[in-house]
Design a protein that fits this description.
This protein is an alpha+beta fold. It is 48% helix and 18% strand.
């Protein structure tokens, strides 16, 4: 019985592993099941992709038969509030702790010098205390002062030499004794004892004088040492004022904008205070090494990179949108001018960092402001560039690493459009460079759904015309401020749009169908019964290559309506965007 249980358990194991792999797209199941174990396949698929894959299969139902993948984000990343009072308590506490670390570092000037050098410089402080010990030695050195006074003792010795005078007087004593004839003469031994006693008394007097001199000089030297110590304390310079450090034009701890900056570092390190502080110090150090302030003033124009990376419009939430079109490097001349040698590659990196810095200066770092971008990465015409152009791959990877390490939490959403067939495999190789939080902001779309994916985040009038929008360069009837309407044309059907007009009205309109391959026409239908319909534009087949945006106008001489007709005879639904405006006719 136990053997049967073991057998059934071993037989069910392969089935459980197959269920785990079910999140992998069908195109990958066949290859992975033959070449790799199921457990390895699961480990290779990041969590973000596990969530994206099911929706990928659903989204690509209309694109069956095409090899271009469609990868869209299943969960939308939502930015957190930058208002301190709205943060959860643990995040508020982490912010307060980080501010204390920054304040302490500013007081100690830790941002202006490398950490290693600071440690080396702190050691001499201990040594300086040791060097201060010679003050005690100075007391010992004051002893020579006594010796000098000892040298001045000959004066006392002169007194000793004067002692013979006493002896001479004593020698003269016999004269007195001669006068006193009746008294017996004093013995010579007593005279000698008296002389010796007097010499001892004089020697004691000299020693007392010496001791007095030593005490006086000792007191004077100790007083001098105390005065020197007080003088040294008075001479010590005052503590230096805290250093001022600015990052992206915002002084640290100056106002509430600094809190927004610090929150970026905390979120980039999952609110680990020490890690966020280490990252902040690293970024400040890198900015000094890279000479960011000087880079902002450097003239890097004329490189021809204006169509490679550029800002255009805003998304639905007001974030500036930055477009990256690396397919432009298919131009061999531009490629050689940018990546031909190491010097040119470094210049490209400096240009890219300068572009980022200038873009950041236009952000609003107030708690209610917009301080992040939406990045759009166009991968059109890029397979050969990424797979076979080593210089471009190295430069973009290096730029990516610099942006990842030194510009935390500046991307609200990153949309990859025109994703080629090979990109999922490439993404799996580079996704280790990104944090889970960063990967949650990624959105992928193949060529057939790029415009619709962009319209989820950016209104059509803000999207450049080359990406399916209505925004064009130069002067046109409509601008980026004129709102557009989105609509859908069903397969194998006609779709009409009506615009009512009054007498003496000039009606202008713009329209485009994503991918076109649709017939289009326009006519005016008067409101009066028995009126004649006027053909404004004869129906014609429009292809994607022939025309991107159709613009026209009609001046009405009587009340009625302008009718636009779109005839979609294909088996796919089509995305339609249009806008109108009216103005009085002359």
């Amino acid at each position: 019985m136990a053997e049967e249980i073991k057998k059934t358990a071993s037989e069910t194991k392969p089935e459980t592993t197959v269920v785990v792999v079910s999140d992998v797209p069908e195109s990958e199941k066949e290859s992975t099941s033959q070449t790799e174990p199921a457990s390895v396949v699961v480990s290779d698929v990041p969590e973000a992709e596990k969530e994206l894959t099911p929706q990928t299969e659903q989204a690509s139902e209309t694109d069956k038969g095409k090899s271009t993948p469609v990868i869209e984000s299943a969960s939308s990343f939502k930015e957190e509030s930058n208002k301190v009072e709205e943060l959860p308590n643990p995040e508020q506490k982490a912010l307060a702790e980080l501010k204390e670390l920054v304040r302490d570092a500013l007081n100690k000037h830790e941002f202006t010098a490398p950490v290693v050098e600071e440690k080396k410089e702190t050691e001499p402080v201990v040594e300086s205390k040791k060097e201060a010990e010679p003050v005690v030695e100075e007391k010992k050195e004051t002893v020579p002062v006594v010796e000098e006074k000892k040298e001045a003792e000959p004066v006392v010795e002169e007194k000793k030499e004067a002692a013979p005078v006493v002896e001479e007087k004593k020698e003269a004593a016999p004269v007195v004794e001669e006068k006193k004839e009746g008294e017996p003469a004093a013995p010579a031994e007593k005279v000698t004892e008296k002389v010796a006693a007097k010499e001892e008394d004089s020697a004691k007097t000299v020693e007392e004088i010496k001791e007095t001199i030593v005490e006086v000089t000792g007191t004077a030297s100790s007083a001098q040492v105390v005065e020197e110590k007080q003088t040294e304390e008075d001479v010590q310079p005052p503590a230096p004022a805290p250093e001022e450090v600015s990052i992206w034009g915002i002084p640290l701890l100056a106002d509430e904008r600094s809190d927004v900056i610090l929150l970026k570092f905390l979120r980039a390190r999952d609110f680990k205070v020490k890690d966020a502080f280490a990252m902040l110090k690293s970024v400040v150090s890198w900015r000094k090494e890279f000479n960011i302030d000087q880079l902002l003033e450097e003239d890097l124009s004329g490189l021809g990179l204006e169509k490679v990376v550029y800002n255009h419009g805003v998304d639905k939430e007001g974030h500036p949108v930055c477009y990256n079109a690396f397919g432009a490097f298919q131009d061999n001349e531009l490629y050689q001018n940018t990546f031909a040698d190491k010097e040119k590659m470094n210049k490209f990196l400096r240009w890219r960092i300068q572009f980022m810095e200038k873009s950041i200066r236009n952000l609003d770092f107030s708690p209610d402001g917009i301080c992040t971008f939406v990045q759009v990465i166009d991968l059109k015409n890029s397979p050969g560039l990424y797979l076979f152009k080593k210089e471009l791959r190295q430069a973009t990877n290096r730029a990516l690493q610099l942006l990842q390490d030194n510009y935390p939490e500046f991307v609200a959403k990153q949309v990859f459009i025109n994703v080629p067939w090979w990109y999922p495999a490439y993404y799996r190789m580079i996704n280790v460079l990104f944090t889970t939080r960063t990967k949650s902001k990624f959105v992928f779309a193949g060529a057939s759904r790029s415009a619709e994916t962009l319209f989820r985040y950016i209104v059509p009038e803000q999207v450049p015309v080359q990406y399916g929008g209505l925004s064009r360069e130069g002067e046109h009837e409509f601008t980026i401020t004129d709102p557009a309407t989105e609509d859908t044309i069903k397969p194998a059907s006609k779709h009409t749009i009506e615009f009512p007009v009054t007498e003496k009205t000039n009606l202008a309109w713009e329209a485009r169908v994503i991918g076109w391959d649709v017939s289009y026409g326009a006519e005016f239908v008067p409101s009066a019964e028995g009126g004649y319909t006027i053909i404004v534009e004869k129906s014609r087949k429009v292809t994607a290559a022939s025309e991107t945006v159709i613009t026209n106008n009609y001046i009405a001489t009587e009340p009625g309506k302008v009718v636009l007709t779109f005839d979609n005879q294909t088996s796919k639904r089509k995305k339609l965007v249009y806008r109108t405006k009216t103005k009085p006719s002359d």
